[in-house]
Amino acid sequence: MARRASRVNTDEEEVELNMTPMLDVVFILLIFFIVTSVFIKEPGVDTVRPDAVTEDDENPSMLVAVTAENEVWVNRRVYEMNELRGVIEQLLQENPKGRAMIQGDEGANIGLILDVQELLSEMDVEVKISTLQ
Amino acid sequence: MRRRQQHKDDQAEVNMTPMLDIVFILLIFFIVTATFLSEEGIDMRPPPDNDTPPPPDAAPPIVIQVDGDNEIFVNQVRTDVDRVLSAVNRFRAEEPNSAVLLEVYDEAEHGIIVQIWDEMGANGVPVSIQRQTDG
User: Fold this and answer.
1) What CATH number does residue A68 fall under?
2) A55, A110, A122: which to substitute to probe chain B, counting the most B Cβ within 10 Å?
3) Given an 8 Å threshold on Cβ–Cβ distance, is B110 in contact with A130?
């Protein structure tokens, strides 16, 4: 009975939840997600990629698409080959250690894909050819 | 002034709830936008240049040519895309250490080149790619 009485007493006080430890955890999570988030710029065009058996998993941060009509797409826009270097440089400034991936359509000309690959290799960007998942 | 001094006696507590709301919204935004994009791909880059000449007893490479009309020639013999591997294996039966050199015209289709590259890679045949520039 005595216990019960004391409980009633505390109820009357203003109950406040100590949120500081939760806030710490939330902040740490927030910082983790800010640091790890890489905003990938999608090429904005769908390509039918060839299938392969010897493929490796990659985490690219730069995507270049080459369509069957031999258009080069980066960040939802079509670019000519001579404009591509500037665009890649811009992307590299945001993410200097970025790795690139070329999403080539099955019907694209291999010459264009090799052009893009050579350009990226020249700029010291690791580049792979994307295949069907 | 008088009023303020009176308030000083109270225990000052910062109301953290609005800040917590904002932090939660930011957290949810970053969780949602964190796209852990994973792709699958193959490495088709040519090997780095080296100046050392190949040893004189090295086997000559098997040349696979793919022309602008997507016709495939293995050591000058015309082949179908599905029979490339068997043709290469036939040549490699005689010269087991010979590598494959893919000579492609610019107008060849990407899909066919990747298919051949992948078949060679899956069967442990060393393969390299070279562009054919003349007409």
Assistant:
1) 3.30.420.270
2) A110
3) no
The pTM score is 0.74
State the CATH class of domain B62-132: alpha beta
pLDDT tens-digit map of A9-65: 555 567 777 878 888 888 888 888 887 776 778 888 889 999 999 888 888 888 999
Q: Are residues A75 and A17 in the same domain?
A: no
Number of domains in chain A: 2
Q: How far is B95 from B125, CA to CA, in rounded Å?
A: 12
Residue A47 lies in a domain: no
Tokens of B29: 């935004």
Q: What is the ipTM of this complex?
A: 0.73
Cβ–Cβ < 8 Å for A42, A63: yes
Q: d(Cα A110, Cα A66) in Å, to the nearest integer?
A: 10
Domain of residue A80 covers 62-129
Contact B131, B96 (CB under 8 A): no
CB pairs under 8 A between A and B: 137
List the single residue in A60, A106, A133 with the smallest CB-CB distance to B110.
A106
